[in-house]
Amino acid sequence: MKLVWPIHEPSSRNRRLGVRSGQRSDAQCMLARLSAFDRLKVSGLAGGETVFRKVWGVLDLALAAGLLIGCSLVGPDSKRVERVDPAGSSDLGTWFDWSRGMPRDYEDAAKWYRLAAQAGHPEAEYNLGSLMARGLGTAKDAEQAVQWFREAAAHGLAPAQYGLGLFYERGMGVPRDDAAAATWYRKAADQGHAPAQHNLGILYAEGRGVPRAMDEALRWWHLAAGQGSDRARYNLGLAYEQGIGATPDPGKAAQWYLAAAQAGHAGAQVQLAGLYRDGWGVAQSYPEAVHWYQAGANRGDAQAQLNLGVLYAEGRGVEQDYGKAAEWWRKAAKQGDPEACVYLGTLYYKGRGVPEDRKEAFRWFSQAEKGGTAGTQYMVGRFLEGKSASQTAASWYVKAAERGLPVAMWELGRLYTTGEGVPRDEAQARAWMGRARSTFSLPLAGVQSGGTGGAPERGRAPPHGEKQGDDR
């Protein structure tokens, strides 16, 4: 459904405003542009208002939209002119784009943005480029999107400069060029654009396009975090927890994780839960660990779902409940988490929280093998060996050992020594144990059931119509 505004026939509301057919005054154009969005607050669209006021609010917005359309099509002298009012056209594009007072229509949004962009309106140039980058309301064209972003960036628009940085970093519409990405991120970051500050910090942390300098990375992340960037807060938490570019300080790490977690950042919720579980930087508390794992799990984070299942299975911070453990491990397993596949398989093997089903157990073990690591293969072997299934366990140890896992090599050598699950073979035993000794550095950590060990979070594509400083 498209809005049809009666430009040729004056409405009764137009007559009250003193507007003749096809005429809009400069004052009315300015009134429409300056007050249209504020009408949302005064026209009854807020919760708790009467239906009548809500309906009147929509009509009031439609009036403002009509004024803007008129401003974009006719001049103040009531004669149709060739030029377009850029601000009015840009505002209309935003209304159609964001469904403010009218049905969302990307094609109409692109049309109005294009009119304003061709007249040199920076926000319209940026928004038109955003639509083109995603193929919304117009053909998807990354190269053309880059050109519109470049036009807006030349006017000093920080979100467009940030967007150009992303295009160069990812090679979208332009050859990949980290140095160019850093240049554009810096232009936006110097204007206080939080996502650009965060991404520039990432480049410094990784030494891409700029010399590697963790002090610079932390500086930019602090600036972004001060503006509410959850990703920057999360990365600061990692830096302080792991001592990357800063003295290890789990207390500071917990503070940064908490700031990001309270804003809904799933990764920070997982990390914070791990600190509470281990009592690292905070007072040890399984209930708090459950709380934050639950928060991350509800947001669909597979690591949070895995760890929440562990706490239910162990009865830590919650009443032991294998059914709940199976529920959360299934969610994580369906997202491809190999450890969750192993754990869910063990429940089916034992019949805990789910019906005993060996076939289903091995189906999940196989899923773990497809997407997992040598560590998950070793886990399956250890579990099966504990269930007196040494022959099957040996086959899993072989898989893990052949992928270079020292502890699996050692266990396989032990089986060859004892003849459990494989023919006794001293030569094979010595060979596998020798390989284990030559490569062994650290004992297997097993399943990472805590929140530690995260990686710095990357930037993301610019949300369509993103405003300066918006990092959500």
Low-pLDDT stretches are 1-60, 72-82, 441-453, 455-472
Q: Kindly, what is the distance between the CA atoms of the first and last residues, rounded to a whole number of angstroms? A: 30 Å
Structural class: mainly alpha
**CATH arch. level architecture of the domain at 1-152:** Alpha Horseshoe
Secondary structure blueprint with pairings:
Blueprint: H1 12-17, H2 26-35, H3 39-42, H4 51-73, H5 86-98, H6 106-118, H7 122-134, H8 142-154, H9 158-170, H10 178-189, H11 194-206, H12 214-226, H13 230-242, H14 250-262, H15 266-278, H16 286-298, H17 302-314, H18 322-334, H19 338-350, H20 358-371, H21 374-386, H22 390-402, H23 406-418, H24 426-439
Describe this structure in words.
The chain starts with 11 loop residues before the first helix and ends in a 33-residue tail after the last helix. Among the domains are: 1-152, Alpha Horseshoe (Serine Threonine Protein Phosphatase 5, Tetratricopeptide repeat); 373-440, Serine Threonine Protein Phosphatase 5, Tetratricopeptide repeat (Alpha Horseshoe), CATH 1.25.40. 64% of the residues lie in helices and 0% in strands. Residues 1-60, 72-82, 441-453 and 455-472 have low confidence and may be disordered. It is mostly helical and 472 residues long. It has helices at residues 12-17, 26-35, 39-42, 51-73, 86-98, 106-118, 122-134, 142-154, 158-170, 178-189, 194-206, 214-226, 230-242, 250-262, 266-278, 286-298, 302-314, 322-334, 338-350, 358-371, 374-386, 390-402, 406-418, 426-439. Helix 5 packs antiparallel against helix 6 (106-118) and helix 12 crosses helix 13.
